[in-house]
Amino acid sequence: MKTDHNLVKQWILPKPINEVAIDNIYLNSILSKVLIRRGIALNNELKEYIEPSDLPDPEDHFNQLHIATQRIIEACERNEQIAICGDYDADGITSTVLLVELLSKLGANVKPYIPSRQDDGYGLNINMINEINKSNVRLVITVDNGVSAFEAINRSKELGIDLIITDHHKLPDFDLDIFSLLHPEKTPFNSPYKYLAGVGIAYLLAKNICSKLNYDIDKTTANAFFCIGTVADMAPLKGANRKWLKECLPKLHHTNNKGIKSIINNLSIQNTYITTEDIGYKIAPLINAVGRIGDPNLIINLFTNESKTSIDILTKECFEMNRERKRLTSQIEVQASEIARKQFLSDKKFLVLMNRRWHPGIIGIVAARVVDKYNLPTAILGRANDGSFRGSVRSNNRLKVNTALDECSDLLIAHGGHSAAAGFSIKEKNINLLSERLNKIAIREFNNIDLNKSINPDACLRLKDINQEFYRQLSLLGPFGIMNPTPIFWTRKCKILDIFRLKGVHIKMIVDDGTSSINAIKWNGSINLKKNDLIDIAFYIEINKWKNSESIQLNIIDIKYHTSIIDLKLHNHLYKCQLIDNKHILITNAKGQCISSDLSNSSKNLNKKQIIFAKKILSFAEIALGKAA
């Protein structure tokens, strides 16, 4: 099904589901279809999906976890000094505070070390190790970084410092000469710990330490930091991540951490269940803003402070910094969009945008927005304090940007990251060469790939079926995020009963599909709509929290003007589908040949093979026309 709005070119509708497959399942039949389409075998996997079983002993999956745990316990018992070296993003900051809090309670003298994004760049470095050595610290634990800090690793070895690296970024293809390494890639095949972010490794280490000491981890606020860091870093919500988030997320709004509580209160989400969306769109950007344009120690201080006066001051600073981050982001986005549009029109397949004045802390956000608009991998560069350029890269999920940077390593000072997001530093003279090479890599990788933006709705849904019980069951499928996306539903022929323009280009509506009406919102809506228009909508279902009240609303992600005849593409052939008298389906192929859902009348001239195909295409048409889920 095609659409002409918001750069979404088509809806790729799901395959029909055999109704027999969902018999005797306690879950709503529409949600059961969603799970079947996502590969969940309802008869033997549903219980595990809804209520994940206990995780295996982590020491059986991380062969160096035992020695790391013992070394840290000894340091705590001796009141030893420990340095926790984190990163300036939300994953690194939550990881750092998590271990600082626990190990301090266990008797260690712990100090956090976070590099400056502008002055130091990413991760552990020699200057940090030298500073740590001056304080006579003999144990360093990295969180969310370390595997690529080769100079710092060598320096710590020279100084006799025990270095425990906990990280989840790409490992080098040689062994690191350190005291201990905790990394998801080192776990067995199919380990539930494979998907942990930096904070997940820190949380696993903390839980293991607590287990050995018979110490209740709930005496700390580690659970809250695990939730925030995992969602903020967009870690896949599978395995241990899914298990622990299901356990910890419902407790988040009851956290005892005064800094987190202050943020939650100021965001006005303190009296409700906090979702992954609340973290991803409200809490995490606030934490990241500090590391992007300010001193990350500000947020560390907020999360480790007990003074209400100090917490109020620090919280105010964080929110002010986030407002400045938004202002800078809007400014850079306007400038970057002009360059991106020119490169897009010149048929570039990897956008590389550069400006000396762009703040290196903001470019990652802008890169993500450019990708969202043009559906092409994008690198945005700004000049750092040392004169080199820092680049932030985001993928369109068709290209692994970390491996693309690997192919360009001879042009780069340093680089690292994941398949979806990466970063690098580069000399100005090499930027044009990098742009050319990345474009060639993208052209190679995108050969025979459709780059048009599309969405994949999970099921068709009547508005009368959306109620509190449906939302409750939908929530059982969560938490939602990477590798467990929020289900997308769609509804045909919705009449706009009322429509309001909100600040900016946002739209609020009341829509009615003939079965019921409901409130809906469309963020950044470019389509021109008016009252009484008929539209087809694809949407998320969410809770609207406003002035201490909650109600179900639709968050519309795409809109099409409703038409009675729709295009259906199957096996690279295009068919016209329509309902006759709202009863029978009529399908017409490119040659003008027709078939009706009333096969008793139309099957006389068809052979057995044609009848089988006719039934197949009719089942797809039922879904496309909204007659089946």
Number of domains: 4
Number of continuous helical runs: 19
Order of strands across the main sheet: 3-2-4-5-6
Gyration radius from CA atoms, angstroms: 27 Å
Helix content: 25-40%
User: What is the name of the CATH class of the largest domain?
Assistant: Alpha Beta
For the record, the CATH architecture of the largest domain stands as Alpha-Beta Complex
Calculate the terminal CA-CA distance, rounded to whole Å.
15 Å
Describe this structure as you would to a colleague:
The chain is α/β, with parallel strands linked by helices and 629 residues long. It folds into 4 domains: 8-38 and 458-561, OB fold (Dihydrolipoamide Acetyltransferase, E2P) (Beta Barrel), CATH 2.40.50; 58-250, Alpha-Beta Complex (inorganic pyrophosphatase (n-terminal core)), CATH 3.90.1640; 348-453, Diaminopimelate Epimerase, Chain A, domain 1; 566-624, no CATH class. It is built from 19 helices and 22 strands. The strands form 5 sheets. Strands 3-2-4-5-6 form a 5-stranded parallel β-sheet, sandwiched between helices. 41% of the residues are buried.
List the keywords:
5-stranded mixed beta sheet; globular; disordered N terminus; inorganic pyrophosphatase (n-terminal core); 629 residues; single chain; Diaminopimelate Epimerase, Chain A, domain 1; OB fold (Dihydrolipoamide Acetyltransferase, E2P); 19 helices; 21% strand; 5-stranded parallel beta sheet; alpha/beta
